[in-house]
Amino acid sequence: MVRAGVVSQPSEWPFGGYNEIQSPRRKCALIAYRRLSELAGFASYDEFREVHRLWVSDTLRDGVNLRDSKWTQSIAVGSRGFVAKTKQELGIRARGRSVARAGSAYQLREPEISYMANFSPKNDDIGVENGYLWNSIFDILIS
Q1: Cα dist. 134→108, 126, 141 in Å?
Q2: Which end of the chain is more exposed for a tag (fewer CB within 10 A), N or C?
Q3: Confidence (pTM)
């Protein structure tokens, strides 16, 4: 919502993950805090939370809070093994999706293809030769 201009700081948007990370809930938690900090390579959640706050403030200060499509349009982002495993577990639902390199990580996403590229002139307007005038249909039904 910061990129959209609705708020100037992520802490101002109550429905985002920023506040959930910075002020962990004691009940009905949405995030496995300890596991998140372990996966991110931190010794404690407090350390992760502080670094997360700095990442966000640095990004906002530097003005590089642009949308990164690998996070917003991918099914999975991470190591090649993680993404390949995710694709395998999705089974037939991942058909047509490919594992692609995205900077230092990998992502699973659908290829971006224009819909119009798949249509040939055979799909033009069917025209009037494929229609009947109302009077002709009425005559057919009566006879």
Answers
A1: 53, 18, 11
A2: C
A3: 0.54
